[in-house]
Amino acid sequence: MASDGTMKSLPRISALACFALLTLGCARGPHDSSIVAHADASIEVGSPAPTLRAVAHDGTVVDLAELRGRPVVVFFYPKDETPGCTKEACSFRDAWERLSKRNVVLLGVSSDSAESHRAFVAHHKLPFLLLSDADGRIAQAFGVPRILTLTARQTFVIGPDGRIAHLHRSVDPVTHAAEIEAELP
């Protein structure tokens, strides 16, 4: 309450924004994988990976076509520094040594800015590249849904042949890195 006795106006979060956070996994607990965001069914195991050319948080140009011959993991997540997203990114960080020994390229994608990604990488010492998808073009290419500006939590494992080897439409941020490790050749 303000000093003049009137109620102070507080910022409101719309019901749609709350729904988006819950649906995309920003607000769910580490073991709740009951919320599934559905994507375009045209991307499936065996499909060629979509064309992707983007600039990572550190200025590196990433082109999937140039990564042929190596396994590539593209994980989409809603937002830097949120609990579930941080747990997922840190689980990949903790698995990085084993993944890199297998010549895996790991790419995280969200709608956050490159500046936000740089801060997220520095804060959590993430050793892999993060791509900014502010316009949603990368998510659209992979058939990953977005609500407002938040991207669903989904992962695509692209084999050395450039085809989708595994896809995950529902992800537990805590155990996901181990799940991906087990799927890699």
Describe the structure.
The chain has one domain: Glutaredoxin (3-Layer(aba) Sandwich). Helices cover 29% and strands 19% of the residues. It has five helices and nine strands; from the N terminus they run H-E-E-E-H-E-H-E-H-E-E-E-E-H. The chain has helices spanning 15-24, 83-101, 114-124, 137-142, 176-183, and strands at residues 53-55, 61-63, 72-76, 105-110, 129-132, 146-147, 150-151, 154-158, 164-168. A five-stranded mixed sheet has the order 5-4-3-8-9. Residues 1-40 have low confidence and may be disordered.
How much of the sequence lies in strands comes to: 15-25%
Coarse structural class? alpha/beta
CATH superfamily: Glutaredoxin
The stretches of 5 or more residues where confidence is low (pLDDT under 50) are 1-40
Number of domains: 1
CATH-scheme architecture: 3-Layer(aba) Sandwich
At the first level of CATH, the class is Alpha Beta
